[in-house]
Amino acid sequence: MVDSDSQYLHFDCFDLQEKTVVLRTAVYAKPNIHYCLPLWEAIRRLHSAIVHPWLLLGDFNSISGPSERQGGAGFNSYKVKDFNSCIKDCNLIDLGFAGPRFTWTNGHLSQRLDRALCNHEWLFQFPYSSNIHLPRLRSDHRPILVRNKILHPTMNPHRPFCFLAPWLTHDDFQPTLTASWKKDSEFIPSLLDLQHILCKWNKQVFGNILQRKKVMTTLLKVLEMQNNQGGSSLLIEEENKVREELEKTLWQEEVLWMQKACANWIKSGIATHTSSMWLPWRDVERVSLLDSKMKRAGGSRIRKSLNEWQETSTANFSLRM
């Protein structure tokens, strides 16, 4: 972190893909105009020393003109003027937005208080930068998402099987696991059968988290627009259901990222213990099939044959079924 204040955090990062230093400022402005003035001066001060790509984003608690508000009483023209002067003095560019026009509402007044600003160096480095207004959930503010480039995801059809922690959040997972595990069979064949069943269950029942998130987000945007124009009680109820499902999907996405972070730590040798969500049978802290070692909780290691390891694992797993 380079600089901070009660209304902003300013930090530098090194973009590994672009191999360049970039600066970011997270803004959380106070609503009172007397607190905004020191913030604008602080941004001017930061600008005077910046030569790298710079992105500012967050809640500026100000609008740039009357078109960025709807409802309520008259707006403070002096506050608008001060905000626009800061943007002009620092040669900042508004990235605009995609999605609903307003980012904040109290039910009577709606305004675009959250935005993303950048300097010319940022746009030169990231010409495809865009700002997206995401659906508003429990907060009175919409989250905003800045994308620096168009993403082209690739699929690997030969990707090895991986137990996904978000499966544990699905109501149907535990019954499927219990019904599919063959207690009386040998460990490895049972594990391979379970792997096949879970892959099929993931495709037919659980689904792709990111695709589901995209669909729910789009649907919520449509329902919000319809209800803003005077929707029925059924539409409002449907919007609440979709918002609840989206919140659950976002939680599953967060769990997935936590699992991936844990896996990266283990691969790099930083972590010494696996996460509780990584293996259902966690009496064994670390398991290596290559040398058939098992590590005790106290740190000492013992060696077992593969058959002994299979019997131990089967017993531990069966107790949890």
Automatic annotation (TrEMBL):
Gene3D superfamilies according to UniProt: Endonuclease/exonuclease/phosphatase (3.60.10.10)
Domain Endonuclease/exonuclease/phosphatase, first and last residues per copy: 39-141
Source domain of life: Eukaryota
Name of the protein: Endonuclease/exonuclease/phosphatase domain-containing protein
Cited SUPFAM superfamilies: DNase I-like
PANTHER family: BNAC02G09200D PROTEIN, DNASE I-LIKE SUPERFAMILY PROTEIN
GO molecular function (one): catalytic activity
InterPro entries: Endo/exonu/phosph_ase_sf, Endo/exonuclease/phosphatase
